[in-house]
Amino acid sequence: MSQLTEIKVPDIGDFSDVPIIEIYVKPGDAVALDDALVTLESDKATMDVPATVAGVVKEVLVKLGDRISEGHPLIRVESGIEAPAQTESPADSAKQGAAPTPTPAPVAAASLSSTEEKDASLPPGGKVHASPSVRAYARELGADLSRVTPSGPNGRILKEDVTAWVKGALTAPCAATASFGGGLDLLPWPKVDFSKFGEIEARPLSRIQKISGQNLARNWVMIPAVTYHEDADITELEAFRIQVNKENEKTGEAKLTMLAFLIKASICALQKFPTFNSSLDGDNLVLKKYFHIGFAADTPNGLMVPVIKNADRKGIFEIAKETGELARQAREGTLKPGDMQGASFTISSLGGIGGTYFAPIINAPEVAILGVNKSALKPVWDGKAFQPRLTLPLSLTADHRVIDGALATRFNVYLTQLLTDFRRVTL
Ligand code: CAO
């Protein structure tokens, strides 16, 4: 006889009103005992809520973004007679509620787990017991889960097991490292007692620094990236921006920023050169028809990349307002995971700080990123005399597997044309 069980949020410690950031099942899916059903994210950790019974999902009672607390109903599961040992009554399941598995809260889009992602960490035909967040963590580090020794209940691989395996692979001789991250034959990280040379202070990295650091290291090592520089003459554009901001001083309208103009111009360039708005997926290039633009935001806890969704459908005032709001939330640590997901192209603007040029690291799985530094007045020869022109230094890093030098330079040239005469954006 089949039995319907309502699986509820178990005891999650002191947390309440925690948002759901992932739902791994839909009606009709078969779930095994301990399979992760949803992931909750508090400001300190993500927690997978596992199935307390095996069976078939009848109903999903929550949606992404719902904020929930202990006892909130999540999923209704129908258990069949073929698995009587794993079924239990709704009351039992609510009472017993398996403890969620905490893992450090993810930051960047690339570090969030998703069952829809291609699971490179699964062995071919092999059976590995690990929650989606542990699989995502393994994928991020290039760890092969079939080689990891599980220490969790029922042979389940925990995050600590993956960390231990990666540490072992990094410090082991070449034969072991050959199976990690595509076979980099690296020396172990130098271990130095700095206090021998003078006074020191050890300061732990923030959670954001640790997670974005892992993403950046992978992207730096795995993407054959080249950076192309170009100067854009923004004399007229900056004059226009200042004039509009002056006109709007009294109306309280959002201040137009150079970043907002850059986002708008970049979308035009992405539409002309769609390869820049794509991702590599094995032998396929996935061209995106949407334009979600990430922008790097400097925060006291480290670098974050909020995303302006469907920026092609938004006006420049709206973009300026939204970037300002998202940057504020990033600094205050109130960004939601969804605010950092789905970017198809990223802009990293250091223009408010300074610099001339730099080589930004691509935010995988994107294929390009635009770096921007501080504009400066430069003498430009007009055929008769040097003219003072406001020049904006641009640095475009592109994945050479997808974008070669000629294409990248065409993109840059077009982008500078747009910024030099912004009327072209409307063409
Ligand atoms: N050239 C000259 N001046 C510029 C400029 C540029 N390219 N870009 C901005 N400015 C000026 C602005 O006009 C503003 O001046 P006023 O206050 O006089 O108008 C000032 O710099 C401050 O601008 P801002 O940086 O606060 O605003 P923004 O919209 O340009 O940038 C944001 C917002 C979130 C991109 C920025 O605050 C930030 O965090 N930048 C750092 C990004 C980063 O760390 N990138 C590196 C990633 S890799 O490590």
SSE map:
Blueprint: E1 3-8, E2 18-23, E3 30-31, E4 36-41, E5 45-50, E6 55-60, E7 67-68, E8 73-79, H1 90-96, E9 101-104, E10 129-130, H2 132-141, E11 156-157, H3 159-171, H4 174-177, H5 207-222, E12 225-233, H6 235-247, H7 258-272, E13 278-281, E14 284-287, E15 293-295, E16 297-299, E17 302-304, E18 307-308, H8 316-332, E19 345-349, E20 368-372, E21 376-381, E22 386-399, H9 405-420
Parallel strand pairs: 10-11, 15-19, 19-20
Antiparallel strand pairs: 1-8, 2-4, 2-7, 3-6, 4-5, 5-9, 6-8, 12-22, 13-14, 15-18, 16-17, 20-22, 21-22
Helix pairs in contact: 2-3, 7-8, 7-9
The structure holds oxidized coenzyme A (CAO).
Kindly describe this structure:
The protein is α+β, with helices and mostly antiparallel strands and 427 residues long. Helices cover 26% and strands 25% of the residues. The chain has helices at 90-96, 132-141, 159-171, 174-177, 207-222, 235-247, 258-272, 316-332, 405-420; strands spanning 3-8, 18-23, 30-31, 36-41, 45-50, 55-60, 67-68, 73-79, 101-104, 129-130, 156-157, 225-233, 278-281, 284-287, 293-295, 297-299, 302-304, 307-308, 345-349, 368-372, 376-381, 386-399. The strands form six sheets. Strands 12, 15, 18, 19, 20, 21 and 22 form a seven-stranded mixed sheet that branches. A five-stranded antiparallel sheet has the order 7-2-4-5-9, covered by helices on one side. A hairpin with a 4-residue loop joins β21 and β22 (386-399). α2 (132-141) packs parallel to α3 (159-171), α7 (258-272) crosses α8 and α7 (258-272) packs across α9 (405-420). Residues 81-126 and 173-181 have low confidence and may be disordered. The chain binds oxidized coenzyme A. Oxidized coenzyme A (CAO) is lined by residues 257-259, 295-298, 303, 323, 327, 348-352, 360, 372, 374-375, 392.
